[in-house]
Amino acid sequence: MTDENSITGAYVEAGKEFTRDTRYVSTRITADGRDGYPVEPGRYRLVVARACPWANRAIIVRRLLGLEDVLSMGVCGPTHDQRSWTFDLDPGGVDPVLKIPRLQDAYFARIPDYPRGITVPAIVDIPTGQVVTNNYPQLTLDLSTEWKQYHREGAPDLYPEALRPEIDEVAELVFKDVNNGVYRCGFAGTQESYEAAYDRLFARLDWLTHRLATQRFLVGDTITEADVRLFTTLVRFDAVYHGHFKCNRSKLTEMHVLWDYARDLFQTPGFGDTIDFAQIKEHYYVVHSDVNPTQIIPKGPDLANWPEPHGREALGGSPFGDGTPPHPPKPDEVVPADHWVFGGSPA
């Protein structure tokens, strides 16, 4: 099995379809500490890379819930070598809290013979320096539920109990056909597996178009975990998936319902202000060298239209319901404006 975050250095197996390794370190951080890791402010560090869509989910959820002062965040650079994601954005190439140069150090501290990819997002126990979990689907759900005591006032309920079955159902379809579907296109090792993945991807995008044509958000009248999971793929679609992964039936900007929906979320505090298009493009076009042997990073697409009006307020609902938007990002977590939307920040 292959994982998009893998450190093998190769992403396409000739003659085979892409299969994601979904075996993760499944330990959970919970309010009651039943796995040995209770929720404690300041104890853990969320390690991410802004380039990675799976890590981007955790960045968004942490920010929407206002957990910045409870759960610190370490940010890896956009590229990695065959060994690990690295902290090359930090002075001396060392994470200032964990005091390690490579995320693999935290994995090996807990599991010395860890056999799989060194993936982000990961949560590390600061006192021991050991990775606790890299199970990204459960990680964000736990931030919404197990960390509830530490949510900011006015934080949204991203996983409301009454809507969980529908959120889970929609999220699973989105994962299989869209989140992972773009990788099944891009890392396909046969023409047949590529075309099958392509057809599934765009069939699901058509299904999502129909669903979102009459409702502002995927499930219910406010943003939920389902929207976070779809957004991180849509926001990367034209910048990398359309060309780099050959998902080229239509650009996002040509799928008008999804384009309006994506801009609606992008302009919502906590979504667009986490996006670093420069790092996203550098990661995909440089790291996936078997897909892009020249490692040339394209100049396009033009990103200046992300702040344009979307008009989806007319469908009703509101992003935060009775709650409030998050505060602006912490100064040391602000994405440079020229990495976010060329020409400035969303209004």
Give a written overview of the molecule.
The chain has 10 helices and 4 strands; from the N terminus they run βαβαββαααααααα. The protein has helices at residues 53-65, 104-110, 136-145, 164-179, 181-186, 191-212, 225-244, 256-266, 277-287, 337-340; strands at residues 44-49, 72-76, 122-125, 130-133. A 4-stranded mixed β-sheet has the order 2-1-3-4. Helix 4 (164-179) packs antiparallel against helix 6 (191-212). It starts with 43 loop residues before the first strand and ends in a 7-residue tail after the last helix.
| DSSP helix fraction | 25-40%
How many beta-strand elements? 4
Spatial shape: globular
Mean pLDDT: 93
Report the uncertain regions: 4-8, 343-347
Distance between the termini: 43 Å
Which series of helices and strands comes N to C? EHEHEEHHHHHHHH
Number of helices: 10
Percent of residues in beta strands: 5-15%
Q: What is the topology, as strand order, of the major beta sheet? A: 2-1-3-4
Largest sheet: 4 strands, mixed
Rg over CA atoms: 19 Å
Structural class: mainly alpha
List keywords for this structure.
347 residues, mainly alpha, 4-stranded mixed β-sheet, 10 helices, disordered C terminus
